[in-house]
């Protein structure tokens, strides 16, 4: 691979991160290479192989016991907002937005949540907790449990049954104020938490016998029944619905207000029951645009109306293609959700691109500085795999750091160094991929997953964090594939990489071996980390930047191996997640974080809350940095708003001072993750970022001094990312310095030369396997 100058001159065990994710110092564990074992892999794949079961003592996967119907024949959709339904008799709250639900022993709970703020010993969180306003329950039988019976892209159906002929099913979905129900026999009992007012009483003469509406704790709810239904108030807060034999359905909605016109509008679409939800994406290389088309399929239970309401989150309505007038909306933990009539909408976003490597430094002093650091980092490179743990996360971090170090050495013309690092990358992955060591991968066909042994942070026991772990592996493998395509072939090691990718990014629905996009929530536009979602606040994701790192790895692997379908999937995931991260974690346009929260970002995002904290510490540098690392050439999305970057960095000293004033100490260095913070700061102000970094200071475990020095020097020379310019190839980047001079970069992973055209009119002829730079 060549760089050519053509210039005129990335928790408790059921939680993300586990009990403690130790920072850059502390516990040292065994190296991650694994020792040979006598067992051979059960399934050979190229030169590698994997087991079809975990060996004794290597952990146990969770059992998705509570599934039925269509869901029982598919891979378990772990890591989704509704995943808790599968793993326990009664679910945790399901944060569907704007509504919340919970399948409980009392029935199916419905709520329209309100905002709460809490400050517990400096750990701040803003929540919209589930509080049941209505409990929907069968009057004629008692369900024995709740089971996931059907699911699609953002829809979940829960069956609460007492036997084969006695079941209540509830269908819920993201963005809808409605929940939809069918019951096999008997009456339906609605238990109300309170009864502030009766807005529509179907038991009264002159009222529509199909509609009941009540106000509970200041929120109005409506129940829509079919023609022929009858009602009875059995208690002041208990309403019984009797359904006709031929129409065993009804819907419940949380209303934005209690007006008659609103009730009428909601009634008009109340019988359009959703049967499927689907997103289709398309990446147009020529325009560098990503289109996402969202559609809900419905069936008319009564009448002919099949239209519904779709709730657009902020990241939707900021990029929606055509105007969708909205009369109604809801405040939510994700900001304002705008309700629009219809069954579909389309968004369009610009793919901002990245290149796998940056060019050689131009300043002689910078080159000398980085060159001297490379010597030391090369000698210490094997230690990147033994600092913190020997499972897929910490070994993955080592792979990522090695790949970035290799890229720096290569850019600086240190061929012998880069070749040595390339061999280290290969041998480390091959030792796992062989299936013949104590560290190995196994495919479980019951749950539908590919897991690495040993587990870390509940990656087996709770199916946590697979995209974080495997993202590093895919990124490392992609860097190998760019330099050694034969290594990445199916005949050698590409098949094993493909299994890892399939675990987190299968784009086919309905498969038995892997679920559709395991970690990614296509409607919220970001990933979830907890496999079983066993939290009252719903699922969660802390390190959004590690999710982005995974999707960038897909783009690179797809380009390097010629898999355009996978590459396009990576572009969609990367573009969408980056947009949602900037919306919900960093809140760049100030549409989400409540004023009383008082922090410029959310370090943790849950289904029903966001928080300023981590799973393992309240130390501010790590709270800030967990949504920045790993720093790679794909991290430029973090610089979408340079002023925000600088303001966020400026807030850190005060946060550290407040932490110290409370007498807290987690045992990490006082400058912990200083390299990550400085690298992030340089995306807003390269000079300021460089000035912050102490080359003799602490080093985050997934980084090296050489890479940080090279990153900072490169941005000083090129400037900050310029997202006003696009190109007609996936691997491109543009920077602009303080004088307004742009640096254009394009990388060609293909076997034939390409001509790249930028939206400014600049063109680059890029030879195969090469990076070209021009100004």
Structural class: alpha+beta
How far apart are the termini? 21 Å
Uncertain parts: 1-38
Sheet bearing the most strands, described?
Answer: 8 strands, antiparallel
Mean pLDDT: 95
| Total DSSP helices | 16
CATH first level of the domain at 69-273: Mainly Beta
User: What's the overall geometry?
Assistant: globular
Question: What is the radius of gyration computed over CA atoms, rounded to a whole number of angstroms?
Answer: 27 Å
The side-by-side strand order for the widest beta sheet comes to 10-11-12-13-20-17-16-15
User: How helical, in percent, are the residues?
Assistant: 25-40%
How many distinct beta strands? 39
Oligomer state of the chains in this structure: single chain
Assign the CATH superfamily of the domain at 69-273.
Golgi alpha-mannosidase II, domain 4
